[in-house]
Amino acid sequence: MVSIIVPFAVKHNNDVNLHNWPNQDLGYSIYNTIQCIKNINDVLDIEKEIILVDNTNNFPNIKIPNLKIVKGWQYLTESEIKSKKNFDKYKINNFKNLSMWVSMAYNIGIENAKGDYIILQHNDIHYHTNLIPNLIHNLEFHSYGYISADYKKLSISGYLGNKETI
User: For the whole model, what pTM was predicted?
Assistant: First the structure.
């Protein structure tokens, strides 16, 4: 089984008109995230669980096949976060670092994952083919620790610092 972890976070004070999602900031993000989840279900013909980590506690409680919604930590107060049983493990020292919360969402998703393989993706990724089984085959065949499917180019300093791994 594959666990696909999708972080979600949108700060918004207005209520969402669920009948008019695409025309509101928060609604647009919710709508796109739902389309992403539907795409995963439609295209990836594998046993899967989709873990949506709701960092800002404003994703609607909806039922979609294979979807499990778990609460992230970003919407909590600093004292509530510090009281979490896993807080010390993450060594959080800057609660205003917004990019850190995506990483935390992935970690929370991993803690809730039951799959043999974990896919970390954003809520704006859409699959066009059932490529994941081929990636899993390559992981197993070549005994890779992980595969990153990313368009970014590796800089020479990034290569030199990680030559043995690459």
Answer: 0.80
